[in-house]
Amino acid sequence: MRVIIVPTREALGELAGKLLIARIAANPRIVLGVATGSTPEPLYAQLRKAYDDGTISLEQAHAFALDEYVGLAEDHPEGYRNVLRRELVGSTGLKEENLHTPNGHSDDPRAAAEEYEAAIAAFGGVDVQILGIGANGHIGFNEPYGSLNSRTRMAALTEKTRADNARFFDNSIDNVPTHCLTQGLGTIATSKSALLLANGKNKAEAVAALVQGPVTAQWPASVLQFHEDVTVIVDEDAASLLEMSDLFERVQP
Ligand code: F6R
Predict the structure, then answer these.
(1) Which pTM does this prediction carry?
(2) Among candidates 7, 15, 48, which has minimal Cα distance to 231?
(3) Which of 116, 124, 149, 222 is 20 to 30 A from residue 228's alpha carbon, by CA?
(4) Is 89 close to ligand 1, i.e. is its CB under 6 Å away?
(5) How many beta carbons lie within 10 A of that of residue 179, not counting itself?
(6) Is there an atom of ligand 1 within 6 Å of 139 CB?
């Protein structure tokens, strides 16, 4: 696991942008795994900038979302397909038909989850998986105490995650869906490389558990310690509970 500490959230976006843009430039047919939430927003802004100035295009690329809420109206602005449309489709060259998201509207969520898992497998796993991390250590919506080898499935969101995400739903936890379809930890493990980003003090405990804790279902992200190619980029606040943090790379992009 390569851990890089940067001074600020802006620097996080810049460095992650540099690393990802190089990967896309080297392989325009790249298959990306894309997270939603606040953390990757500065990274997606870098991709749009690089598309605007002609450095890269995702025209030939595919993108697979990590997760989707179950039960939101199809046109709900916080549905993750709609979020990713706004962030990436067109503005980075990504085509609508190459944006893959689990079908949170399906009458048969179990079948929808299996289809999604199969679609990722058909590409041999994603090339670069972008990840955020929940304050409780979730990646995707794999909440604590689930299987470390889970596959795409319907899952319940914890109160903690629903409270954290209420900011996207008029600050009311009651508006936040209770369930989602999410890639499993075993699905994420099939990615060829992963880029996990975290900023802010509220992520510090989860980051310490991810990087230095025992591998445990209590902190789902800790399973990434077994992944062969993970880069973790965190700001100073998110790094604040790491032991011996002077050992890690510090980069000022
Ligand atoms: C989103 C996702 C989640 C988020 C995590 C952090 O697709 O899978 O794991 O990455 O909840 O969210 P933010 O970045 O909003 O703090």
Answers:
(1) 0.97
(2) 15
(3) 116
(4) no
(5) 15
(6) yes
- Looking at ligand 1, which residue's alpha carbon is closest to its atom 15? 37
Taking only the tens place, the pLDDT of each residue in 37-70 is 999 999 999 999 999 999 999 999 999 999 999 9
Q: For the sheet with 128-131, list strands across it.
A: 99-100, 62-65, 31-34, 128-131, 193-198, 230-235, 2-6, 249-250
Assess whether the C-beta atom of 67 lies below 6 angstroms from ligand 1. yes
**Which one of 9, 69, 129, 138 would you pick to mutate in the ligand 1 pocket, going by the greatest count of ligand atoms within 8 A of its CB?**
138
**Count of Cβ atoms closer than 10 Å to residue 39 Cβ:** 23
For residue 138 and ligand 1, the question of a CB distance below 6 A is answered with yes
Q: What digits encode the pLDDT tens for the residues 152-209?
A: 999 999 999 999 999 999 999 999 999 999 999 999 999 999 999 999 999 999 999 9
Using a 6 Å cutoff on CB, does residue 137 contact ligand 1? no
* Kind of pairing between the strands at 179-182 and 153-156: antiparallel
49: Cα separation from own chain's centroid: 20
Alpha carbon distance 187, 215 (integer Å):
17
- Residue nearest atom 1 of ligand 1, based on CA coordinates: 36
CA–CA separation, 68 and 46 (whole Å): 24
pLDDT digit string, tens, across residues 228-253: 999 999 999 999 999 998 889 999 88
Please work out whether the CB of residue 36 comes within 6 Å of at least one atom of ligand 1: yes
The structure tokens listed for 227 are: 């992944």
CA distance linking residue 220 with residue 231, whole number of Å: 17
For 214-223, what is the mean pLDDT?
A: 98
> Residue 130: what residue type?
I
Q: Which two tokens stand for residue 127?
A: 């090339």
